[in-house]
């Protein structure tokens, strides 16, 4: 009996000793948790705030700077003259593709622990990565529809209105149309044109912003179009959209005072798309852009007027026509001494045929002139690279004559020759000729003397009020 109390004391001492060890373990754990370094390793501590934008543009993220997140162009990219690109549409933005969301369920997903717990299903939110367009873009689109429909092919207004209707289905086509509208609007603004209601709204904002926006849309259109063409042969509808985008980009280059090289490349690109990417160009909605369609449109301009008089080719703007054609004959004769390659000789011969047919008053001059555009597309890749190289002075002089010849052919239509589009063509042609002359060595500048003199004289007459803005 005397041993029983002793056993009970031993039992009481063991729990007391165990409690003492538990308190020691809790104390050790608490001291470890008090260490801020170990606390951060466990993920329970506060994190440093994010000092840069999470929703900024790609350019600012690449440069590791804070983005203002202003759309469509942030302040940083606008200040540096860069193309502002965004990975995702804005959460709240009016316009096409404005942040539409769709829920995607990922799973079921097996847990890696294999402890028999229930399987999980992940739900993620995916943003629709379509391009976002702002209010400025709507203004460019409106200007395209109302004021910037390209003048060619003759009578092709309905075709271009169809392009506007289908633009929302193709991002490359929409960007091409917006680029064309922006460049045309910029040209209207810098020319002081009053024929467009939208010019006065944009002139105060400066043309520099418009030029950057036009260039941004052009770059995006070319990138998206390249992606589309790299997918292989296109369907009829896709082929029409691709060709329309190429034509829009070509006309846009024709409205850019520094777009001469782009214009030549895009003319060739139109032929490449028509020959290699479209199922059948004659069955396309743009078959009127072919040589026969081009000629048919110009012949319609020479139909009898209300008085029953048919304006023959030799009757249209006779004095100015004879002046420029006679000047072409002499200037092309001099340039012949510079031509060495087969492409240069053939291009020179083609222009001589156009001038000769125009002097004779033949309507075949239109068909031969359309073939001049085709020659750029018919050259082999190596020949085109050599012909369009900046150091090929003979080819540059030939192109200068060709640009002026294109302006003269459009002068046949007396309404277009003195219209707003005629003034734009004259201004851009003069800028391109001056660019060519600047790149020529001193001993070759004289070969461009007559084209430059005529272009400057015509621009002076237009600026002096010789021919007002007609519809």
UniProtKB/TrEMBL annotation:
PANTHER family: STEROL UPTAKE CONTROL PROTEIN 2, ZN(II)2CYS6 TRANSCRIPTION FACTOR (EUROFUNG). Residues 17-27 have a biased composition (Basic and acidic residues). Residues 1-55, 99-122 are annotated as: Disordered. Residues 56-86 form the Zn(2)-C6 fungal-type domain. It comes from the Eukaryota. This is Zn(2)-C6 fungal-type domain-containing protein. The keyword Nucleus applies. The keyword RNA-binding does not apply. Keywords: Nucleus. It comes from Colletotrichum gloeosporioides (strain Cg-14). One of its GO terms (molecular function) is zinc ion binding. Pfam families: Fungal_trans_2, Zn_clus.
């Amino acid at each position: 009996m005397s041993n029983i109390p002793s056993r009970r004391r031993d039992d009481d001492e063991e729990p007391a000793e165990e409690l003492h060890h538990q308190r020691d373990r809790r104390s050790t754990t608490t001291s470890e948790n008090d260490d801020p370094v170990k606390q951060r390793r466990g993920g329970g501590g506060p994190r440093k705030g994010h000092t840069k934008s999470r929703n900024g543009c790609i350019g600012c993220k690449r440069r590791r700077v804070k983005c203002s997140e202003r759309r469509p162009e942030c302040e940083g990219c606008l200040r540096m003259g860069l193309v502002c690109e965004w990975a995702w549409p804005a959460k709240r933005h009016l316009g096409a593709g404005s942040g539409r969301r769709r829920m995607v369920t990922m799973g079921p997903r097996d847990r890696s622990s294999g402890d028999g717990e229930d399987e999980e299903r992940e739900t993620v939110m995916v943003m629709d990565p379509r391009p976002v367009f702002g209010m400025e873009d709507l203004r460019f689109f409106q200007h395209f529809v109302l004021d910037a429909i390209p003048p060619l092919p003759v009578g092709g207004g309905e075709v271009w209105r169809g392009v506007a209707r289908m633009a929302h289905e193709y991002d490359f086509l929409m960007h091409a149309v917006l680029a064309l509208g922006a460049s045309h609007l910029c040209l209207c603004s810098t020319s002081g044109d009053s024929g467009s209601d939208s010019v006065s709204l944009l002139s105060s904002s400066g043309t520099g912003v418009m030029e950057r926006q036009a260039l941004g849309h052009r770059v995006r259109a070319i990138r998206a179009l390249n992606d589309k063409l790299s997918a292989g042969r296109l369907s009829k509808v896709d082929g029409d959209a691709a060709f329309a985008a190429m034509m829009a980009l070509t006309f846009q280059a024709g409205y850019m005072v520094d777009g001469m090289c782009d214009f030549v490349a895009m003319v060739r690109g139109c032929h490449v798309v028509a020959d290699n990417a479209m199922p059948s160009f004659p069955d396309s909605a743009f078959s009127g852009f072919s040589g026969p369609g081009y000629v048919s449109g110009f012949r319609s301009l020479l139909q009898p007027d209300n008085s029953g008089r048919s304006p023959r080719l030799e009757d249209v703007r006779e004095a100015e026509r004879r002046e420029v054609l006679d000047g072409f004959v002499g200037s092309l004769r001099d340039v012949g001494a510079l031509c060495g390659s087969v492409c240069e000789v053939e291009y020179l011969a083609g222009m001589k045929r156009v001038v000769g047919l125009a002097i004779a008053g033949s309507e075949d001059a239109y068909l031969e002139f359309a073939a001049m555009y085709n020659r750029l597309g018919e050259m082999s890749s190596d020949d085109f690279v050599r012909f369009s190289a900046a150091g090929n002075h003979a080819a540059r002089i030939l192109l200068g004559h060709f640009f002026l010849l294109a302006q003269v052919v459009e002068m046949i239509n007396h309404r277009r020759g003195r219209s707003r589009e005629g003034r734009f063509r004259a201004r851009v042609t003069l800028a391109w000729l001056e660019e060519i002359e600047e790149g020529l060595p001193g001993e070759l500048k004289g070969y461009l003397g007559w084209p430059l003199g005529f272009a400057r004289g015509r621009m002076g007459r237009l600026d002096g009020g010789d021919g007002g803005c007609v519809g």
